[in-house]
Design goal:
Layout (H helix, E strand, L loop, with lengths): L7 H25 L3 E6 L2 E5 L4 E6 L6 E2 L3 E6 L2 H18 L5 H27 L5 H52 L1 E4 L3 E6 L6 E2 L4 E6 L3 E8 L12 E7 L5 E11 L4 E2 L7 H4 L2 E10 L9 E5 L4
Antiparallel strand pairs: 1-10, 1-15, 2-9, 3-5, 3-8, 4-7, 5-6, 7-9, 10-14, 11-12, 11-15, 12-14, 13-14
Helix pairs in contact: 2-4, 3-4
GO cellular component, one term: cell envelope
Organism: Chitinophaga agrisoli
Subcellular location: Cell envelope
Length: 309
């Protein structure tokens, strides 16, 4: 029960006190009002199988932190290894057919060398009138025949070598392809982060492209919020802003965030935002990067406060 006020001055003082008490919370409320709302998200990577076969090993569990470029599993590659061995055997069989060119050509080279020595001897005898021109002509003809045989044999041998080498090239390409497929039987974690979802278990048969697990780096999260056109002048890339998350009893926890992205095009406010009237407004999406100490979770709501100009 309010006390009875006995004079006008006292009444005026009481009214003024009540008005101040009513206005101050409103002022604090306006000053404390958020400029935008949104939810936290992370860059999520779905790791898929690059081979087909039974999952022999899979060292992944939800909530596990995995460093980048770490082998976390193996897909059975027995058939690939057997096929590689078969192809390599075929290569050896083809290459074994390549003739030995050097010994065959060496025989004719020796014959040519012998005839040239004889040619020199006959030339000396001819100068001493101890031989005839016909003897020299016969030797020259023999040398020409041998040189022609040498060129023909060399060309034939080169054709054979080239043919067998060409036959082996597709097989060697198959070996390279199988080596690549064998590498893909290893499951390598591409990015450092925390496993969010695990889709398969060890022992299952997976196929190329099948999702194995989802991972994201939770050391920092992105707050996706939406601002109106009139707020664009208050925000820019690289700017430090304040992000608030809820605490019990209506309190907030403040975080420092950095603006990493501002949409270049306006869009309608997403349907999950506030009222139907607000969803028909044109807004711009922004992303705020916030360092996470483990308290922030994907999907958690948050508020954005901009520095007033």
């Amino acid at each position: 029960m309010l006390p009875v006020l006995k004079n006008t001055a006292t009444i005026r003082a009481a009214v003024a006190t009540l008005l101040i008490m009513a206005v101050l919370p409103a002022c604090r409320s306006n000053k404390d009002e958020a400029d935008a709302f949104g939810n936290f998200e992370a860059v999520e990577t779905v790791v898929s199988a690059e081979g087909t076969g039974k999952l022999l090993s899979f060292m992944v569990e939800e909530g596990m932190r995995l460093p980048a470029d770490t082998i976390v599993g193996w897909i059975d590659s027995t058939q690939l290894s057997l096929k590689k061995s078969q192809v390599k055997a075929n290569i050896r069989a083809v290459l074994s057919k390549i003739p030995e060119t050097a010994p065959q050509l060496e025989v004719i080279r020796e014959q040519i060398a012998t005839q040239k020595r004889e040619q020199l001897r006959v030339q000396n005898l001819l100068k001493a009138n101890a031989a005839t021109s016909k003897q020299l002509d016969d030797i020259n003809a023999q040398i020409a025949v041998l040189e022609k045989q040498y060129r023909s044999l060399a060309s034939s041998l080169n054709t054979q070598v080239s043919g067998y080498s060409s036959e082996a090239q597709p097989l060697e390409a198959q070996v390279l392809q199988l080596n690549d497929q064998l590498k893909q039987s290893r499951i390598i974690n591409p990015v450092g982060g925390t496993v969010l979802t695990k889709y398969v278990e060890r022992g299952e048969v997976v196929t190329y492209g099948k999702a194995l697990y989802k991972i994201a780096d939770l050391s920092s999260l992105l707050l996706r919020a939406y601002i109106g056109e009139e707020q664009l002048g208050q925000i820019k890339l690289g700017q430090q802003v304040t992000v608030r998350t809820d605490l019990p009893e209506g309190k907030y926890r403040q975080w420092t965030g950095t603006v990493t992205w501002i949409s270049a095009e306006a869009e309608f406010t997403p349907k999950e935002i506030q009222t139907k009237e607000e969803r028909t407004n044109l807004v711009y999406a922004v992303k705020i990067k916030v360092q996470n100490d483990g308290s922030l979770k994907i999907g958690m709501p948050a508020e954005l406060k901009l520095a007033k100009q």
